[in-house]
Amino acid sequence: MDMQSVVVGTSGTTAEDVIAVARGLARVELSPQALAAVAAARQVIDELAAKPDPVYGVSTGFGSLAVRHISPDLRTQLQRNIVRSHAAGMGPHVEREVVRALMFLRLKTLASGHTGVRPVVVETMAAILNAGITPVVHEYGSLGCSGDLAPLSHCALTLLGEGEAAGPDGALRPAAELLAEHGIEPVELREKEGLALLNGTDGMLGMLAMACADLARLFTSADITAALSLEALLGTDRVLAPELQAIRPHPGQALSADNMLRVLAGSELTGHHQDDAPRVQDAYSIRCAPQVAGAGRDTLAHARLVAERELAAAVDNPVVLRGPDGTGRVESNGNFHGAPIAYVLDFLAIAVADLGSIAERRTDRLLDKNRSHGLPPFLAADAGVDSGLMIAQYTQAALVSELKRLAVPASVDSIPSSAMQEDHVSMGWSAARKLRTAVDNLTRIIAVELVAATRAVELRTGMTPAPATQALLTAVRAAGVEGPGADRFLAPDLAAAEAFVRSGALVEAVESVTGPLA
Predict the structure, then answer these.
(1) Lowest CB count within 10 Å: 4, 95, 130, 313, which one?
(2) SS3 (DSSP) at 214
(3) Please, are residues 442 and 355 in contact by the beta-carbon 8 Å criterion?
(4) How far apart are CA 453 and CA 229, in angstroms?
(5) Residue from 403, 404, 412 nearest 430 by CA
(6) Closest C-alpha among 120, 96, 101 to residue 110
(7) Could you give the angle at the alpha carbon of 310 between the alpha carbons of 323 and 431, nearest 5°?
(8) Domain ranges of the chain
(9) Which residues of 132-163 are buried (b: 16+ CB within 10 A; e: fewer)?
C-alpha cells in the first residue's frame, strides 16, 4: 500500500491505515467492491422502508423513542434531527488526528456493506477527509455506548453542511463554506443514514490505535534509558542474561532484557557494583527493569489484538445482513458497546503509570549521592552553589503522580442514559482521553531520565561507555540537550529531550549501533 493513499474495502482495515490517515493525511480511496456492497445493502433498506412494518432506525424513533413509527414524509427530517440533536458535545476541541481517525473508522464501517447508507454518503465522507476538512468535535459527549455519539454527530453535521469545521490551514469556518470551496455537495440524509453515521466505537478505537503505536516506541525508549541508568550507576548486566529470562518465559520481559543487553554491549562501566561501594545486587528499579517494561509490552500486545479485532468489525445498530442469495434483513444488536476497547485502554494506563514510576525511581537514585555510587549530589557541578537536576526530578515526580490518577479505570463506571434504555455504558471514550494524557506524560518522564542518565554517564570519567551510549550522547547533545556544567535555565533542555524522545530520535540514535531493537 502506498502510504499516501489508503484504500477502504469491505473487510476492515489496519492500525497503520488509521495512523496514515489520521497523522499522515493520506488520501482515502473507496474500492469498487466497497461501493457495490454499500449499494446492495442500501437496496435492503429501501425495500424495508417501503413496507408498513416498523424497523428500528429506518421507520422508528431512536433509543427510548423507538416505540414511535415514523411516516415516510418525516423520515428525512428524523435523520437530520438525530444528527443535530446528538451534536451536543462540550469542552475543548479534540485534536485533529483524533477527529480524522474517528471519521476514517466510521467510513470503514459505512463501506462494509452492513450499515445501509447510500454510496453518496461514503463518497462525501471520503471527500471531506481528502479535502483536509476537520469537523469541530468536543472533549465531552460520549459514554462509549451506542457508539461515540456526540463526537460522531459533530462529524456528521459537517456532511450536512452545518456547524463549524477547520480547513486545511486549521482556521475555523462554517462547514458550508468549506464544503462549497472544495466542491463538495452537502448530503440530505435518508432512512437509516443519520443513525449509521453516529453509532460506532470509532473515536475510542482510533485513539487506541495511535496510543499503541506511541507506546511501542516508548517501551523501547524506556529500555534504552533504563540501560543508561544501569550503566551510570555501575550496575551489572548479568541480570539481563537470556537464560535468566528463559526460566520466566514472558515474551515482553525477554525482549526488554535483550534490548538493554544490546545497548550495554561493550561498556566499561557495567560490572563495577562490587568496587568502591560493594553491592550484592542492584536496586529493584535497575534489576527489575525488564520485568516491569516487559509486562507492559505484553499488555500492549493484548491491546493490539483487541484493536485488530475491532478494526475488522462493522459496528452499527441495526445492521444489514445479506444471505448468499442476495436477500437481506436488518437486525438489532449490541456490538456498539465499547467494553472490549475500554478495558484495554484502562489496562494500558496502568502499565504506563508503572513504567513511569520505575523510571522516576531510577532518576532519583542517580541524583542521590548516598545511592549513586560516587556521582555528585543532583549531578551538580558545584553542589550547594548549583542545584543540578534537583527540580527536574520534582517535575518528573509530578508527572508520575498524575499518571497514578490517570490509571484509575474509567470502564468500571456506568451512568444510565436515554430514559434507562441505555442502562449500561462503557465510558471507553473517557478511558481513551486519559490514556492520551498518560502517554504524553510518559514521554516527558522518559525524557527526564534521559537527561539525568546521559549527564551521569558523562560524569563517569576514566571509563568508556558502550558504543550505543556514545552514539546517543552525540545525538542528544546535537539536539540541544546540554551536558554537565553549571546551573542554567533547565526548561529548554527538558523540552529538547522531550522532542528527542517523542520524535523517535532516541531510538534511532541507538539503533545506528545496535541495529533494530524490539
Answers:
(1) 4
(2) helix
(3) yes
(4) 5
(5) 412
(6) 120
(7) 145
(8) 5-200, 207-318+330-514
(9) bbbbbbbbebbbbbbbbbbbbbbbbbbbbbbb
Q: Count how many residues are written for the chain.
A: 518
Fold of 207-318+330-514: Fumarase C; Chain A, domain 2 (1.20.200)
Closest residue by Cα to residue 111 from 45, 62, 209, 42: 42
Tell me whether strands 164-166 and 172-174 are parallel, antiparallel or unpaired.
Answer: antiparallel
Catalytic residue among 56, 140, 343, 394: 56
CATH code, residues 5-200: 1.10.275.10
6 φ, ψ (degrees, to nearest 5): -115, 125
**142 φ, ψ (degrees, to nearest 5):** -115, 135
Q: Residue 165 pairs with which residues in a beta bridge?
A: 135, 173
* Single pTM value for the model: 0.95
Note if 56 is an active site residue. Answer: yes
Q: CA-to-CA distance for 144 and 257, rounded, in angstroms?
A: 37
Q: Minimal CA–CA distance to 158: which of 182, 139, 192, 140?
A: 182
φ/ψ of 146, rounded to 5, equals 60, 20
Q: How far is CA 271 from the centre of its chain?
A: 38
| Beta-bridge partner residues of 178 | none
pLDDT 10s per residue in the chain (518 long)? 444 899 999 888 999 999 999 999 999 999 999 999 999 999 999 998 888 888 887 877 776 677 788 888 888 898 999 999 999 999 999 999 999 999 999 999 999 999 999 999 999 999 999 999 999 999 999 998 878 999 999 999 999 999 999 999 999 999 999 999 999 999 999 999 999 999 889 999 999 999 999 999 999 999 999 999 999 999 999 999 999 999 999 999 999 999 999 999 999 999 876 666 667 799 999 999 999 999 999 999 999 999 999 999 999 989 999 888 878 898 989 899 999 999 999 999 999 999 999 999 999 999 999 999 999 999 999 999 999 999 999 999 999 999 999 999 999 998 888 877 788 899 999 999 999 999 999 999 999 999 999 999 999 999 999 999 999 999 999 999 999 999 999 999 999 999 999 999 999 999 999 999 99
Q: How far apart are CA 66 and CA 57, in angstroms?
A: 8
Helix (H) or strand (E) holding 172: strand 172-174
Q: Are strands 5-8 and 27-30 parallel, antiparallel or unpaired?
A: parallel
DSSP 462: T
